[in-house]
Amino acid sequence: MNGLTVMARAKAKPGREAELEQAMRAVVAPTHQEAGCLRYTVHRSMIDPSEFVTIEHWTSKEAVDQHFTTPHVQALLKQAPDLLMQPPDITLYELLPEGHSEKGRL
Question: pTM of this prediction?
Answer without folding.
Answer: 0.88
